[in-house]
Design brief:
Layout lengths: L1 H11 L4 H16 L5 H12 L3 H6 L2 H24 L21 H11 L2 H19 L3 H23 L17
Helix pairs in contact: 1-2, 1-3, 2-3, 2-5, 3-5, 3-8, 6-8, 7-8
Amino acid sequence: ILGMLAAWRASGAEAGKLVWWVGSGLFFGLATCFAYAAVAVVLGVVAFAMSSAKRRRSADFYGMWALLGIPALCLAPALVWNAGNDWIPIAGGTFRTLWEFDLKRSAPALAALLLAFSPLLFAAMIFGWFHALVESRTGHLRARFVFWCAAPSLLIGAYFLLRGSSAAASGSGTTSSRKR
C-alpha cells in the first residue's frame, strides 16, 4: 500500500518526482521479500504511468527505472535460487508444470477462495474493479490508477483458478504443490 501511495504521489508531483518513484521502488522491493505477487502491482503502476500521453510525458525516465529496478534487485537472489532448484513457490509447482491447467479443479479452487475470504468481499473486489474500469473510461484519474494497479492481480487470480489451485486458501502457495 505504501508503494502505491508513493507511486500516486510521484505521478502527480511537479518537483521531487524522482524521490517519490525511488520511495515507491523501495516499498515494493520490501514487499517482494514477503510476497512475489507485489511485482504484479508494480507492473500495474507502470501500466498506469504509461496509459495516457500526459502520463507518458510526465513519467520520469529514471523514476520508472527505479520503480522497476529496485524490486527486481530485491527479488533477484530468491529467483536465482528458485530457478537453480527448478522451484516456483508462487505457482505451486516447477517450471515444467507452470502452464498445466486443471479445469476440473477450478470450481473447488473458487469455492476454497470464497471460503478463505467472505464471498461478499470477493464480489466487492470484482465489482470495484469493473466500476474502476467504467469510471476510468470517463477520465477519472483515481479510477484509472485503481484499475491498472488491480488488473495484474486479477489476472494472477484467474491464472490460479485455471490451474485449479487457490494460493489464497492454501497460504502462500508454497506448501501445496502436487507431486507429478
